[in-house]
């Protein structure tokens, strides 16, 4: 398997950055859908 090619393994802030990015995307999508009355 190509685990050597995963950039987040060589960057100290790789996984925290990915988790924060996912949280920001999910939160922004929630508020966008809530504003359009889709939720």
Could you characterize the architecture of this molecule?
This protein has 39 residues and is mainly α. The protein is 56% helix and 0% strand. The protein contains one helix and no strands. The termini are far apart.
Layout of secondary structure:
Layout lengths: L13 H22 L4
Organism: Streptomyces fuscichromogenes
Keywords: Membrane, Transmembrane, Transmembrane helix
Subcellular location: Membrane
Low-confidence stretches: none
**Biggest pleated-sheet summary:** none
Radius of gyration: 15 Å
Class from secondary-structure proportions? mainly alpha
Note the main attributes of this structure.
1 helix, 39 residues
At a glance:
This is Magnesium transporter CorA. With 39 residues, the chain is an all-alpha fold. It is built from one helix and no strands.
């Amino acid at each position: 398997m190509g685990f050597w090619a995963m950039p987040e393994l060589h960057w100290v802030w790789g996984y925290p950055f990915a988790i924060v990015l996912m949280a920001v995307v999910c939160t922004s999508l929630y508020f966008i859908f809530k504003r359009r009355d889709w939720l």
